[in-house]
Design brief:
Layout: H1 3-22, E1 39-42, E2 51-54, H2 56-69
Antiparallel strand pairs: 1-2
Length: 79
């Protein structure tokens, strides 16, 4: 990750925290397994408030599937 990408990532994370603090963005359960403990995942740092709510496990699997298959997010829900 170069310096420009790192800045974009940092800014996107800050904007999400700020929007949550102001009530403009509300944390949702994990979109895969419904775990309430989630992090905001950015598919595109140029759209900082467009996030996917994923728990740490599903977030790690998203990156694993994306890197190994190149097919993107294709996890199945546990329910």
């Amino acid at each position: 990750m170069n310096n420009t990408q790192a800045r974009a990532r940092s800014l996107a994370a800050w904007l999400v925290r700020r929007a949550m603090h102001l009530g403009r963005l509300v944390r949702q359960p994990c979109e895969v397994c419904s775990n309430p403990k989630v992090i905001a995942h950015h598919n595109d740092y140029t759209q900082p408030l467009q996030v996917r709510w994923l728990c740490r496990t599903c977030h790690g699997q998203w990156h694993y599937v994306r890197v190994t298959d190149g097919l993107g997010f294709r996890l199945k829900s546990n329910s």
